[in-house]
Amino acid sequence: MPTRSAAQRRAEAKQAYNAYLAECPSRQLLASISDKWVSLVLNALGMQESSRYSDLARQIAGVSQKMLTQTLRTLERDGLVRRQVTAAVPVRVDYALTTLGRSLLPVIEEIKQWAEQNMNHVRQARGRYDARA
Amino acid sequence: MPTRSAAQRRAEAKQAYNAYLAECPSRQLLASISDKWVSLVLNALGMQESSRYSDLARQIAGVSQKMLTQTLRTLERDGLVRRQVTAAVPVRVDYALTTLGRSLLPVIEEIKQWAEQNMNHVRQARGRYDARA
DNA sequence: CCGTATCCCGCACGATACTG
DNA sequence: CAGTATCGTGCGGGATACGG
Question: Which positions of strand C lie within 7 Å of protein CB atoms?
Answer without folding.
Answer: 1-6, 13-17, 20
